[in-house]
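Structure (tokenized):
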């Protein structure tokens, strides 16, 4: 039975889990400089080896190898069976002058360029960024001019550790040569590092590889445009606030302003290919990618630096995903509560402190009255609030079993929006905690809110100490976590305490920001056993390790409140799946969208479809919009019952999501899986960018088109059943399925129960005084107090009524009154009971001074079990 435990969720029938199990060992013999290779199947990988032949050099590692041709220079990469999976393009022996490029005219690289092994540019590579406002830090242009040269032949080869160091000649007339290292990188990968002997004037380095028209390039982080970047060219640069150009573009219309279709907050310089390898550019400088876009049979990765370092991992896509994420990191499994429904109280546009306080009070009342399941509540504008009020809110939340969350960002600003204390700008600037100009003055800029701001320098130990003090103070208030917002604002002219410049630091800044925060959290947790702190992020980048090693999960950025393919509801699936195969498993969209400035407001239909989309994603989080509120109880939405229904669906899937996340932490196979990863030999599966697999046995196909009451779903091989309607489909084929507004199309593999109900009876709920239906006369003295408890092994979740627990029954208000108590057991099952009593002007015809009622298990209509 799938889904009832960690092991069964992984499943012996899971093809992705099985794909990771093979191991190979090599037996290598060398005869008079000529290499003979025999493959022997063994249960364990072999030690690395190097063979220096007359014409070729062989580097072998566990599950991966490289064949280096001496002249003309060329490197090919082989898998565990000695099959070539990737080769550099053939060499050229003449310098290539780049054509003139006008700066600022394109959001993507322009060609042509030199396609050759290990090429480098002598000349100019000058990125410029937007300097103010909502696009501050975004790439505006990259001016690249000069002459490119490339590797020619191996002049010398020396074994070095498990690999080889090479001296390689080039066609640069000045006599520059390359130092090249080829070495196994862990189990199942080969790393290549190349540097230019004289870096003066060398501004970029690239490598180019042969490709086929059928090759697919999957990954690259939170891209919205496609699941396959074949035929595309783009820069890898962490950007912010890219929005689509219309309320609902047609499929394929995914342009973003200002950075084009590939603009993203969360960049991964890695991909997996359907041709049995994966690739990681292990550098943080600006990089450009041309993926069969200029030449149909070649792709290139270039980095703005006089050196290049990359990793090639041979294997099927599941194995490659595991190998690369073992290098870059995998998002850790969050505590169980962090997978439950979350509610964010954002700061709305131009909102004042008192209005924000009232919003919080209103939220908590509505959550209680509507009995919404909420595990965490985030207070974005916490610095707006008087400390006594903030402390009381946190205490109220904790008393209800709701975890309080707060908010942080990596810059200080002069605007008054409640996300930080007003004194912190002056404190950071005056104490040197921020980045500087070349002359050493604080680097100030106009931030997203067009106010003076400065970026915190996390390479400065004093700034890190100050940051940790701020984190500790928030946790001491009782917060159990926070949103880490922004991280994209680094500009080329910034200087950091460790000597780094902005163009070097831009992509790696989010990683450092998250690393410092993780260290602060772990230090706090070590002093406070039992506290499990969670934080989620917007920006990110790869590295060794990258952002995924430090954060718990992501939110996708500021989605527009529309159906847009570029930045609205229809952009989410591609974003989630593209980053998931890079180790970012936790994806928590802003239900209903966020950015409604200049966009349409969230309608009831859009809100419900967005809620459905989130229900079977890893993180279920209601955020709210910038200008116009869209809570389930808002008059324009009026969808409390349906919101609760899909909240419960997510709660029912929590056990499966947790088990899949634990598996992902071990294997790299993501929680949410693109169909191409599970069915690599199915060409139709590779086309599906609006559906996903939640583990091996759940197919999710949300509606993302306005006005639709059905949709076409592609069913991969096997039998699939809708657990709500009973509809059964046998793949591989397309089928149109009904999807009214209150329906989310999702299917279980026939014969499985991935969302197993929790074991054992629901929890007991005990309420004392009054008895159900009791009647009291006005002003009557009642010699008993109202109290409520949870049964053995259960936790009291909420206890609400006209008086506080421990206080006497109030008989001074005529009418009907009620108490409601909810408890939850360790498996997450909920049960509740409501007790009503009446106060009348006349003497009561029957009354009960004190009584006790136990519910175990709750009868139908009262219990709220999973």
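Design, position by position:
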């Amino acid at each position: 039975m799938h889904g009832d435990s960690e092991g069964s969720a992984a499943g012996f029938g899971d093809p992705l889990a099985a794909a990771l199990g093979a191991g190979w060992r090599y037996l290598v013999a060398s005869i008079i400089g000529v290499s003979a290779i025999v493959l022997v199947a063994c249960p364990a990988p072999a030690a690395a080896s190097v063979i220096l032949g007359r014409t070729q050099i062989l580097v072998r590692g566990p599950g991966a190898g490289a064949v280096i041709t001496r002249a003309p220079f060329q490197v090919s990469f082989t898998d565990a069976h000695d099959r070539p999976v990737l080769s550099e393009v053939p060499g050229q022996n003449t310098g290539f002058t780049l054509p003139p490029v006008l700066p600022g005219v394109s959001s993507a690289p322009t060609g042509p360029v030199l396609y050759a092994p290990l090429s480098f540019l002598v000349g100019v590579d000058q990125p410029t960024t937007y300097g103010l406002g909502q696009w501050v830090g975004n790439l505006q242009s990259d001016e690249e001019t000069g002459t490119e040269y490339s590797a020619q032949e191996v002049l010398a080869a020396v074994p070095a550790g498990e690999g080889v160091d090479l001296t390689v000649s080039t066609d640069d007339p000045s006599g520059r040569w390359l130092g090249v290292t080829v070495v196994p990188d862990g189990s199942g990968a080969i790393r290549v590092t190349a540097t230019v002997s004289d870096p003066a004037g060398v501004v970029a380095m690239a490598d180019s590889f042969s490709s086929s028209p059928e090759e697919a390039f999957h990954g690259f982080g939170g891209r919205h445009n496609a699941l396959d970047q074949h035929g595309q060219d783009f820069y890898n640069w962490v950007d912010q606030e890219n929005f689509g150009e219309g309320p609902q573009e047609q499929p394929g219309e995914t342009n973003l302003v200002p950075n084009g279709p590939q603009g993203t907050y969360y960049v991964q310089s890695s991909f997996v290919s359907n041709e049995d390898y994966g690739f990681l550019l292990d550098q943080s400088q600006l990089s450009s990618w041309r993926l069969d876009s200029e030449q149909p049979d070649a792709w290139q990765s270039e980095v703005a630096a006089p050196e290049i370092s990359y990793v090639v991992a041979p294997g099927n896509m599941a194995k490659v995903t595991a190998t690369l994420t073992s290098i870059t990191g995998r998002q850790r499994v969050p505590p169980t509560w962090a997978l439950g429904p979350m509610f964010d109280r954002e700061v709305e546009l131009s909102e004042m402190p008192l209005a924000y306080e009232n919003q919080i009070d209103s939220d908590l009342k509505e959550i209680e009255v509507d009995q919404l399941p909420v595990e965490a509540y985030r207070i974005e504008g916490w610095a707006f609030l008087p400390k006594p009020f903030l402390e009381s809110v946190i205490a109220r939340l904790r008393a209800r079993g709701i975890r309080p969350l707060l908010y942080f960002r990596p810059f200080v600003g002069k605007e008054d929006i409640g996300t930080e204390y007003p004194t912190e700008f002056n404190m950071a600037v005056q104490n040197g905690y921020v980045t500087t100009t070349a002359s050493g003055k604080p680097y100030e800029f106009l931030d997203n809110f067009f106010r003076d701001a400065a970026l915190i320098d996390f390479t400065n130990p004093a700034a890190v100490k100050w940051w940790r003090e701020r984190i500790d103070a928030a946790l001491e208030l009782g917060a159990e976590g926070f949103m880490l917002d922004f991280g994209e604002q680094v500009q080329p002219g910034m200087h950091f305490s460790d000597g780094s410049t902005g163009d070097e630091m831009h992509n790696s800044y989010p990683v450092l920001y998250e690393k410092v925060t993780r260290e602060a959290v772990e230090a706090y947790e070590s002093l406070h056993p039992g506290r499990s702190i969670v934080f989620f992020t917007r920006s990110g980048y790869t590295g060794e390790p990258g952002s995924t090693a430090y954060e718990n999960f992501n939110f996708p950025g500021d989605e527009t409140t529309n159906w847009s393919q570029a930045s609205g509801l229809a952009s989410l699936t591609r974003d989630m799946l593209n980053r998931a195969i890079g180790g970012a498993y936790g994806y928590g969209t802003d239900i209903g969208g966020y950015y409604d400035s200049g966009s349409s407001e969230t309608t009831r239909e859009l809100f419900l479809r967005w809620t459905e989309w989130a229900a079977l994603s890893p993180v279920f989080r209601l955020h709210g919009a910038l200008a116009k509120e869209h809570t389930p109880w808002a008059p324009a939405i009026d969808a409390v019952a349906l919101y609760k229904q899909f909240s419960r669906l997510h709660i029912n899937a929590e056990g499966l999501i947790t088990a899949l996340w634990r598996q992902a932490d071990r294997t790299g196979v993501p929680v949410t899986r693109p169909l191409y990863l599970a069915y690599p030999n199915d060409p139709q599966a590779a086309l599906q960018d609006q559906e996903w697999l939640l583990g091996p046995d759940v197919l999710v196909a949300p509606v993302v088109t306005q006005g639709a009451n059905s949709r076409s779903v592609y069913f991969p091989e096997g039998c699939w059943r809708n657990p709500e309607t009973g509809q059964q489909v046998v793949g591989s084929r397309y089928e149109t399925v009904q999807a009214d507004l209150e329906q989310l199309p999702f299917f279980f593999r026939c014969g499985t129960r991935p969302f197993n109900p929790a074991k054992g009876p629901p929890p007991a709920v005990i309420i004392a005084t009054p008895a159900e239906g009791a009647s009291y006369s006005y002003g009557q003295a009642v010699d008993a107090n109202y109290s409520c408890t949870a049964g053995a092994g259960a936790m009291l979740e909420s206890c609400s009524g006209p008086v506080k627990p421990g206080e006497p029954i109030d008989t001074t208000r005529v009418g009907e009154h009620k108490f409601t108590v909810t408890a939850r057991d360790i498996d997450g099952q909920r049960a509740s009971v409501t007790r009503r009593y009446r106060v009348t002007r006349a003497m009561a015809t029957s009354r009960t001074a004190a009584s006790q009622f136990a519910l175990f298990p709750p009868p139908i209509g009262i219990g709220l079990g999973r």
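Reviewer-requested clarification: The longest helix spans residues 640-667. Confidence is low (pLDDT under 50) at residues 1-13, 15-45, 843-866.
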